[in-house]
């Protein structure tokens, strides 16, 4: 039986929302961007129409409520952009570890069983129904959660409007905010499934090679998957950045407090997208230690034979060493040992850390405009570049 017949295609995203998107033609294959655009524009567009009819346009577009606009127009779209790019890479990662032999033939049935279990969980309608229930009862817990921003809870917005409910607030609080929270919790559910799958893969008897050039025993493609979570990292950071902006404008938060909050945001992103990679640390460390032991023993035998043949042998001449493959083999052996010595105990590089950090920091940059006006920033930049 062929390997691709034993192991089914891996797919992490599904459930009622994606089924509905397919039915209306907004989801094609793994591309769900159309669904994200429709959800964001529909919810935001109706809210804009209600605001204009109510005659509160200037207040509606003020910085004090920018978080609502960012969530609906930017963050929801980024959720589906990330889903669209990550989903096929996850499937490719599974095909990669099967074709390369990282998962041995004997472990393929166990891997197939794990994938089928993930399929059942991600298509489990009860999960999304429970998430919907949670988002609609979440106002009961908002006071205890103490969420940042003016547009994150009922109490702040109702107080801001003078204690009166209107159609704009009703639409945002009763539909837009629950939709956003549902999509956010849905993503956390899928992330939990991805963590669970990686944990199950780690429990298999993996065939990790210490001299693999990816410096991760053959798991290097996993870093490619995690890199494409940058869109979700940007979405999470944009949500927090907009909430911080609302608080700074309203005077409930000092700008200088961001200096301690931004590292927390970066730490949160690292836990979400780098933390799961530590699942493989024990096996990668053991692979490195075993590889160093085995290759050092082999290297000792080889250099001993090389020394006896080309150094200790009195009949050996410089002319006879010219062009011999033994010298190149000695260099190749040294390179192989260097690969084992430099093997990572987490399947990632500094590039992943940098990309996620940049994705998290970009949405925070507009906050500088709240403290430093554009003209002042331009002046400072000009002085720095010109040296004046």
Give a written overview of the molecule.
This protein has 388 residues and is mainly α. The chain folds into two domains: 3-204 and 219-274 and 348-371, no CATH class; 288-341. The chain is 70% helix and 0% strand. It has 18 helices and no strands. It has helices at residues 3-6, 16-23, 33-54, 57-60, 66-99, 108-122, 125-137, 142-145, 154-160, 167-203, 221-227, 230-250, 258-273, 281-312, 318-321, 325-341, 350-361, 374-386. α5 (66-99) packs antiparallel against α11, α5 runs antiparallel to α12 (230-250) and α14 packs antiparallel against α16 (325-341). The model has no long low-confidence stretch (mean pLDDT 84).
Percentage of residues in DSSP E strands: under 5%
Whole-number count of domains: 2
Protein structure class: mainly alpha
Low-confidence stretches: none
From the spread of the alpha carbons, the general shape counts as: elongated
Q: Got a strand count?
A: 0
The helix-strand sequence is: HHHHHHHHHHHHHHHHHH
C-alpha-based Rg, rounded: 28 Å
- Measured as a percent range, the helix fraction is 55-70%
Largest sheet: none
């Amino acid at each position: 039986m062929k390997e691709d017949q034993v192991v089914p295609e891996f797919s992490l995203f599904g459930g009622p929302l994606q089924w509905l998107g397919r039915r209306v033609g907004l989801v094609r294959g793994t591309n769900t961007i159309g669904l994200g655009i429709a959800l964001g524009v529909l919810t935001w567009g109706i809210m804009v129409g209600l605001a204009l009819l109510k005659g509160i346009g200037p207040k509606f577009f003020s910085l004090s409520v920018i978080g609502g606009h960012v969530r609906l127009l930017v963050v929801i779209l980024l959720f589906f952009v990330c889903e669209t790019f990550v989903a096929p890479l996850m499937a490719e990662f599974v095909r990669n570890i099967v074709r390369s032999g990282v998962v041995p033939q004997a472990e393929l049935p166990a891997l197939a069983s794990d994938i089928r279990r993930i399929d059942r969980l991600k298509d489990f309608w009860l999960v999304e129904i429970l998430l919907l229930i949670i988002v609609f009862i979440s106002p009961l817990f908002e006071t205890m959660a103490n969420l940042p921003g003016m547009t994150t809870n009922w109490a702040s917005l109702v107080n801001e409007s003078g204690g009166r409910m209107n159609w704009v607030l009703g639409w945002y609080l009763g539909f837009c905010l629950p939709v956003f929270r549902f999509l956010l919790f849905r993503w956390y559910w899928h992330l939990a499934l991805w963590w669970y799958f990686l944990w199950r893969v780690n429990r298999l008897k993996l065939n990790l090679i210490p001299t693999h050039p990816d410096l991760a025993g053959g798991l290097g493609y996993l870093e490619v998957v995690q890199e494409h979570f940058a869109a979700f990292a940007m979405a999470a950071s944009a949500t927090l950045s907009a909430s911080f902006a609302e608080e700074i404008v309203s005077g409930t938060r000092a700008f200088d407090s961001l200096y301690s909050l931004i590292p927390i945001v970066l730490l949160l992103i690292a836990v979400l997208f780098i933390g799961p990679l530590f699942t493989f640390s024990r096996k990668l460390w053991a692979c490195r230690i075993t590889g160093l032991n085995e290759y050092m023993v082999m290297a000792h035998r080889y250099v001993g034979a090389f020394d006896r043949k080309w150094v200790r042998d009195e009949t050996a001449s410089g002319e006879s060493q010219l062009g011999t493959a033994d010298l190149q083999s000695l260099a190749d052996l040294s390179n192989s040992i260097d690969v084992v010595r430099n093997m990572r105990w987490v399947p990632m590089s500094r590039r992943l850390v940098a990309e996620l950090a940049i994705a998290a920091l970009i949405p925070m940059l507009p906050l500088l405009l709240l403290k430093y006006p554009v003209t002042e920033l331009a002046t400072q930049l000009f002085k720095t570049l010109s040296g004046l």
